[in-house]
Specification:
Elements lengths: L1 E6 L4 E10 L1 H14 L6 E13 L1 H14 L3 E8 L4 H8 L6 E5 L4 H8 L17
Length: 133
Amino acid sequence: MLTVQTDPDIGYLELTVDGRIDKAHFEQAVEAIDALLKTHRKIDVVEIVRDLGWVEPEVWWKDIVFHLTHGNFMRHAAVVSDNGLIGPLTRMFAPLYPAAIRTFRLDELEDARRWAKAHAKPGEGDGPPLDFA
């Protein structure tokens, strides 16, 4: 399951991974990101990984294509998990993303949210919004 919450005023996205991720879940997340990017050039993201379940192979491919077409869309990304593999994997892949990325434990969730939103201000973006239509 992948749940999505947004704050469109400040360009904030929160994803919670708790088990299996299918194509419909992934598409819901992409739609939320694209909606935020209509009014914000960059967004701040918190990804909470409670349980990493099966990810449909089609989702992996769609994720690669998404990142190739969206490029530099994140300003801050906080990855929150108690899964021992998530932190090292995040740090390994962080250099591939042009964003400030930090990892947090689940008991630090509020700290992660504060950190990700630290520079976000209502109505403020980093230049004109991008159009991915």
